[in-house]
Amino acid sequence: MPTVTSRQNPIVEKYRRAARSDDRTLMLLDGVHLVGEALAAGVALVDVAVALGAEARPEVAGLMKQLSRARVPFVGASATVMAALSPVRSASPIVALAARPSGDLARVYDDGARGLSRAAAALVVIVADVQDPGNLGAIVRVAEAAGATGVVAAGACADPFGWKALRGSMGSALRLPIQIAAEATRAIADARAHGCRVIAMAPRGGRSLFDADYTQPTAVLIGGEGPGLPAAATDAADERVTIPMQPPVESLNAAVTAALVLYEALRQRTHETHKNTKTTKAKP
């Protein structure tokens, strides 16, 4: 394979621009896990760099075989070049550049728009002003795990396709539809246009998490660390929901909040589906 040994090679600046999110057409995938997830998800890889000598490692050798079969170009990189290409403190043995997803809003709300069963109805997380990329990535990960149909990163959110958020999502951002909105109020309007009821998570004063209904097409608003949701977004929601907390705890991490509400939605939807199935079977 071709090799790169100089940090002055143009490929280095290309990776650095992607790492800084300066190039919004590309995303940087750092490490064996993310590159493997991208290949499995059919993500279009543009460039791949493998640390010289890392091809002897079984997990890297396996990826190189997959890259060859998929006809994805890759180069070998010296240790100094890999240190420049990989944004983590200890350079990964493989990094890649991939085309960013289109961010098609229709895909985020696809299930709800097609009027499927309650269990398959749209369940979208609108994340407003979550600036920690690790938190945002964790929200995307739990959204996929709990069966959400998509995530909208609104307002002053971290870049959901930045390398830190991608690592935090553990590959979920490569599969789950994600859209970026300039403002939370715009995202709320889009949710309503797709038939969703909008629920705003509030630290206090709302209906209990366990009393709200998530069985219909739903968009859940989650605010950023510290200030929470913008007042305009909370006021625009159909309902405020609060997670019961024992004092003196006043708030929870945004990703924890997302996990609790999404799994309550999953519980309700699964229960509703099982109840309807049993009712149907009981008919003569």
Largest sheet: 7 strands, parallel
* Level-2 CATH architecture of the largest domain: 3-Layer(aba) Sandwich
Helix content: 25-40%
Mean pLDDT score, rounded? 90
Structurally, how many domains make up the residues? 2
Low-confidence stretches: 111-119
CATH topology value of the largest domain:
Alpha/beta knot
**Count of helix runs:** 11
Order of helices and strands: EHEHEHEHEHHEHEHEHEEEHEH
CATH class descriptor name of the largest domain: Alpha Beta
CATH superfamily of the largest domain: SPOUT methyltransferase, trefoil knot domain
Side by side, the strands of the main sheet go 8-7-6-11-9-12-10
Number of strands: 12
Classify the beta-strand content into a percent band.
15-25%
Coarse structural class: alpha/beta
| C-alpha geometry | elongated
Distance between the termini: 68 Å
- Nearest-angstrom radius of gyration? 21 Å
Could you state the oligomeric state of the chains shown? single chain
List keywords for this structure.
Alpha/beta knot, 60s Ribosomal Protein L30, Chain: A, five-stranded mixed beta sheet, 284 residues, seven-stranded parallel beta sheet, alpha/beta, 2 domains, 39% helix
What is this structure, in a nutshell?
The protein is 39% helix and 20% strand.
Walk me through the structure.
The protein has two domains: 3-99, 60s Ribosomal Protein L30, Chain: A (2-Layer Sandwich), CATH 3.30.1330; 105-277, SPOUT methyltransferase, trefoil knot domain (Alpha/beta knot, 3-Layer(aba) Sandwich). Helix content is 39%, strand content 20%. The protein is built from eleven helices and twelve strands. The chain has helices at residues 10-19, 32-41, 58-69, 79-85, 105-108, 110-113, 133-145, 163-169, 184-193, 231-236, 254-282, and strands at 3-4, 26-30, 45-51, 74-77, 94-99, 123-128, 150-154, 178-181, 197-201, 207-208, 218-223, 239-242. Helix 8 (163-169) links the parallel strand 7 (150-154) and strand 8. It is elongated. The model is unreliable at 111-119 (pLDDT under 50).
